Amino acid sequence: MPSVYEKYQLKPVINASGRMTILGVSTPEQEVVDAVNFGLGHYFEVKDLINKTGAYLAGLLDVEDAVVVSCASAGIAQSVAAMIVRGDPYRLEHLHAHHHEVPSEIVLPKGHNVNFGAPVGTMVNLGGGKVVEAGYANECSPSQLAAAINANTAAILYIKSHHCVQKSILSVAEAAKVAKTHGLPLIVDAAAEEDLRLYYNQGADLVIYSGAKAIEGPTSGLVLGKRQYVEWVKQQANGIGRAMKVGKEGILGLTHAIERYLAKEKESGAAMVAKMTPFIERLNQLPGVTAKV
Ligand SMILES: *Cc1c(COP(=O)(O)O)cnc(C)c1O
């Protein structure tokens, strides 16, 4: 078989940038690839597969429930839809058909209304929500967040990311307090973050992760959180979620990748330098090239 790079005339990539969507994000380890392959090679009762892998992950992470989705963006859209539909069978099937007389505004700090490769607002709109910005581009306090809430608010959205403004923006714990005071759910997009328990423990009701970034799983996403909300996210499989379906291979691959990720020691700086050193030494043998850690 000719190399894929030759067959399609692709440029070979040495990824020195980390987990970038534009470069193919990550290359899962063999055990994860095996889990993906097992998924591809077998049949399952898919609802059972979704529920039981979700419950297994929830047990590993010590959260109420979890569900594997097709990617973090799909997780945002389906979480928003979940908070608008809230299990109503008519709204589930007619989300975009017309206006529904239920809260649909999603409040987020203005400094979090970013483009992570696609706009956060587009994912909110896909989920049937309307973005309401709180505070200013460079500032959002708990009271500024609260000021944007009204009777039409469905949820608060918090984006935990290097893409966002970091200074003078309230913390996840503070946002959770505002949400609780107003009886609203807090959704946290932690797509590229490394700690799978932190934001849940800080009071978020739903937390969303990208499967191929820190976790180094297949293309997929994880939504974890409070049982009722996760249940409503799962129901979106019969609504907008169908257009962003995750396959059995993605479900089994991510579940195994998370198990491996949690068991793995975090790589130390010294270990990274040790791994880099032979590569750097060989680069330095190339004429005209100077490289250092
Ligand atoms: C990468 C990223 C996403 C999208 O994740 P996908 O799994 O590629 O959909 C969403 N939000 C943030 C902050 C991200 O960094």
Topology summary:
Blueprint: H1 4-7, H2 30-40, H3 46-61, E1 65-69, H4 72-85, H5 89-93, E2 105-109, H6 120-126, E3 130-134, H7 142-147, E4 153-159, H8 172-181, E5 186-189, H9 198-201, E6 206-210, E7 221-225, H10 227-235, H11 248-263, H12 269-283
Parallel strand pairs: 2-3, 2-4, 4-5, 5-6
Antiparallel strand pairs: 1-7, 6-7
Helix pairs in contact: 2-11, 3-11, 4-6, 4-10
Bound molecules: pyridoxal-5'-phosphate.
Which key phrases capture this entry?
293 residues; alpha/beta
Name the overall outline. globular
Largest beta sheet: what is the strand line-up?
A: 1-7-6-5-4-2-3
Instruction: Report the strand count.
Output: 7
Classify the helix fraction into a percent range: 25-40%
Which sheet architecture does the biggest sheet show?
A: 7 strands, mixed
Summarize the structure.
The chain is an alpha/beta fold and 293 residues long. It contains 12 helices and 7 strands. Helix 3 packs parallel to helix 11 and helix 4 crosses helix 10.
Explain what this protein looks like in three dimensions:
This protein has 293 residues and is of the alpha/beta class. Helices cover 40% and strands 12% of the residues. The chain has a seven-stranded mixed β-sheet with strand order 1-7-6-5-4-2-3, sandwiched between helices. Strand 4, helix 8 and strand 5 form a beta-alpha-beta unit. Helix 2 runs antiparallel to helix 11 and helix 4 crosses helix 6. Pyridoxal-5'-phosphate binds next to helix 4.
